[in-house]
Amino acid sequence: MSAPPGPVDGLYDVGDDLDAHVPDCPPEQAWQRRRDDYRLVSPANRRKMSVIVVGTGLAGSGAAATLGRLGYRVECFSLHDSPRRAHSVAAQGGINAARARQVDGDTLRRFVKDTIKGGDYRAREADVVRLAEESVRVIDHMDAIGAPFAREYGGRLATRSFGGVQVSRTYYTRGETGQQLEIACAQALQEQIAAGRVHMHTRTEMLDLVVADGRAQGIVVRDLLTGEISVHTAHAVVLATGGYGSVYHYSTLAMASNASATWRAHRRGAAFASPSLVQFHPTALPVSSHWQSKTTLMSESLRNDGRIWVPLTPGDPRPANDIPEDERDYYLERKYPAFGNLTPRDVASRNAREQIEAGHGVGPLKNSVYLDFRDAIARVGREVIASRYGNLFTMYLDATGEDPYEVPMRIAPGAHFTMGGLWVDFNHMSTIPGLFVGGEASNNYHGANRLGANSLLSACVDGWFTLPLAVPDFLAGLVGTVPLDPGAPEALAAAAQARERIDALLACRGTHRPVWFHRRLGEILYAGCGVSRTRQGLIDALAQVRALREEFWRDVTVMGHDRRLNQELEKALRVADFLELAELMVLDALDRRESAGAHFREEYQASGEARRDDEHWCTVSAWQMSDGGRHVRRSERLAFSVVPMQVRSYQ
What we know:
The protein contains 17 helices and 23 strands. By secondary structure, the chain is α+β, with helices and mostly antiparallel strands. Among the domains are: 281-415, Succinate dehydrogenase/fumarate reductase flavoprotein, catalytic domain (Flavocytochrome C3, Chain A, domain 1, Alpha-Beta Complex); 489-608, Methane Monooxygenase Hydroxylase, Chain G, domain 1. The protein has a five-stranded mixed beta sheet with strand order 1-23-22-12-18. The model has no long low-confidence stretch (mean pLDDT 96).
């Protein structure tokens, strides 16, 4: 494989390659080898060592609860008023596991193949093998701590299929899997809080990372109720703060979801990998008003029984039920007969966008396609469909006023999951020693596109089975040391810089609120760095993002002050970070001169499908900042032996 091409138009620099520290053995043996080699900390020493965990979703709560149970002193932080409000609750459809309990041909190797292929060969193979291996015990663990999985009549756990696979490996709790898993994890976390091994800090937001002696040793936080800024230090820091899809403004993420924790770590030296690899979920509700604050996610599980179609005639004004069968185009079934409506999300979203732009969109704004359950209801009955998706149908009715039992749902691609995140090696450590990253905040499992139901799996695996082994290995080298003094110069300097950023925002007395800039940023990104990208569109988007950032710091207004609850200030801090992150997203998309998964460059395609360039871009791009503030692209070379590279096809 040749080295990736040089910079585009001299917009950034190129640095040296990254080492993922994968054991020198076949990928199938890497995780066992690493487990055998991990150093341990004796129970007597664990109580003397402290770990900071930021985030209380499945990865964060799992890591905090497990490290607490092992005997470490854990300081856990959440910006929510309760740990269980973390955004993991929003993943509805299910969680994958390669347990092969259905006799349908599933195997551990098939799981690896589906995930590597689904990510278009841009994920680290050894990590995916580890994900598959640990998936086998995740379900039993989550079942044991209280997740009420659906069951067959005889008591066996039920499964269903998700996009990108032809087997049934997705375990679920109706249409609220993430919520039930989060409740179980939060309960386990509360047990450790009650035992005094985890100290919980709610309504507290991380503003910066404290780096001293070349390693992460603490964080700067702000109490969202009082505005107090303080420093907390520990032997190691774990970030499990989720993804950054809300940078697009219209996204399926909760309004509080943000990228500040990971972005502040990036500014302190942590490489940010694959920022342009963003998944657009094909079953989001369409935007119905310019003033809408976000989009709503309808679970991918609906595509098990729902059929996606558009009218054959562009602009057909008839209601969906009045359009006869021979005047409908079930375009996914037509183009991808092997997978049909269960094609991967990037394929389904790209095809929906093509239909809408070709004039076949439906709904008042002609910006959606139909997801129809008529045939499924006729086949298995309304009661069965209700048992599988009843809460989702109710949610759709509440959001739109339309009954999906009677008329088709209307869906459209919406910004959703981010495959990019802080770069981590095989030990889940970032380029800053002592800074570990888990869940969607990291980059390592999903490549250029995530298969549905792998997000809950990767978060659970990170939180319960990998971070609790990797973090102690690092701590073993620090036995006998004490955490950094919160009054150390590095800690005080980080706190002072966080204070300066807040003061600068409050000093701006412009004319527009932070959300005004966020909305404009989303418009730029959807147009230039959305489902499809072009070189010129990305160059234009880069100039627009940079101009908007300058305008933000000149014309934003933040009402109130910082000594109390101030959600306008919180929003301003996040939008300031989004504007910097957006520039890197566009640069990464401009730099990667190929199409792979969710990154679809219109210049690189074959018969409408993504065309990879494995000779030059079989890499993960990880970005850092030079001392002069310029972006520097570093690369991690990828290789595949378990799943040899091939042209990705779902036909």
